[in-house]
Amino acid sequence: MASFGSDHDDGELDLKGRALNITDVYAFREDSQTGNPTDAANLILIMNTNPRSLPSQQYYFSTRALYEFHLSRNMAANKAKRPTGAEHVTVRLQFGTPTAENRQPITLTVIDGKKETRVDKTTQGQQIFTTPISESQAGKPISNDVQIGNNRVTVFAGLREDPFFFDVEQFFKVRAYAVATKSFLGFRPPAQAIDFTHEYNVNAIVLRVPIELLQSSGETIFDIWTTISVAMN
Fold it and tell me: d(Cα 71, Cα 156) in Å, to the nearest integer?
């Protein structure tokens, strides 16, 4: 089985189109952004894909791929230790064929050990959808609330402005200068740097997950990584 790592934008390959390209991964406690102490009970997980998506164009998630967040549990006392790579919890999203309104149905699956909870129209009578660009532009993002056991998970999937900042022009100058002179040219000051990703979009998957759902024995530290996988026939 072939395996690929990702930087912000690998470009498009025969075996990996833009819908399979992970750009960035973010994870943080919700209260770190809202300032609301009650939000400390939630973890926000974000996977951005589909780099260089042009404004006002509709893009889709792959209907063949598994988009997955993988988490290892750790007690607070072990937070400085090297990650083990143990896969304790997996949150998986699969996307269906777009509807006439450009919405893609989503199947959400949470795998914890041998326990697997699947949420879609067939299993729980609740269909989860992506947000098409028309509804995003109208300020009507689709926020899906689903029940996993005693916990409520919120799911958003759709286009968002790329939050990454990269002065690619200066980067190539720095690299060429280093090769030629064996010294560092330096980057432009923030106010003068040119953001290559300005006005580009990404397809974002955003989850609000209660930390309680991810815990086994009161763990408060989680090592997190993401993958996009496609079966090779």
Answer: 19
